[in-house]
Amino acid sequence: MQATQTPGLKNWIRILTIALIWGAAFMGVKIALDGFGPLQLAATRVGIGAVILWLLMLARGVRFPPLSDRRLWATITLIAILSTALPFALLSWGQQHVPSAFAGMSMAAVPLFILPLAHIFVPGEQMHLRKVLGFGVGFVGTMVLIGTGGLQAAETWTVQVAQLACIGGALCYACNSILTKRCPPVNELALSTAALGLAFLLLAPAALLVEGMPRAIPTHAWWAMAYLAVLPTAAAYLLKVAVVRSAGPSFMSLVNYQVPVWSVVLGALFLGERLPGTLFAALALILLGLAVSQWGTLRGLFRRA
Fold first, then answer.
1. Which comes out higher in pLDDT, residue 251 or 43?
2. pTM
């Protein structure tokens, strides 16, 4: 087995770039919602992304797994639902009513949700005292995040449901991480492309039935859609694979600390979002809980750097 390399400057630049791309995705969703309905947005974004990855598959000579492998395709279908169809729909709908910063910050809870799920479903990933403490601190931060007031002039039940939708999207991503870890062996590019394609087949009919065809879409919404389809999907995928192969998945996990920060900064700079102090307190608690739970990994990474 080849030893994991020292991260190096190139990989630090890569994860900073990935975090910026993913952090800006929430701002992109907010802008694209000016012309698309939430289901239209999710379906169009996924459809374009699936085509891009399929073209990449053709260029690399990668093939889909055989349809006769029913267990694998059943797993891929569940991954399509939990990694794309459901969270994209929840986050797109939620961002109609909450700032992009809130949606981005809710993603900081993903690694915390993974801790108890991994304890139950992944052998060798049992929680110990430090992980329990980290989860507890982060869970308090998540509750503060959900209970944050002052996100809009009128705090209504719709806003509260939208907050829960964003947290629900984070929970979907956490469940998908466990499912992907337990997935039978399959090429990662083929898995990602198949999952996006299946998600499109689920989202497109729902979008047409509920929202119909998009009409009179402003130019800035199309630009935001192009960004969402190309960079967070295809470009970030390539960078992620490069980081995991050269520096390992633990180093890649550092992205989790950066995405919510970028979503806050970009939302404030370009969308003029005004955020209450409790929102930053929630972010601090979530990131602290994440740092406590992953302290051993973080210490090893920074020593190697």
1. 43
2. 0.85
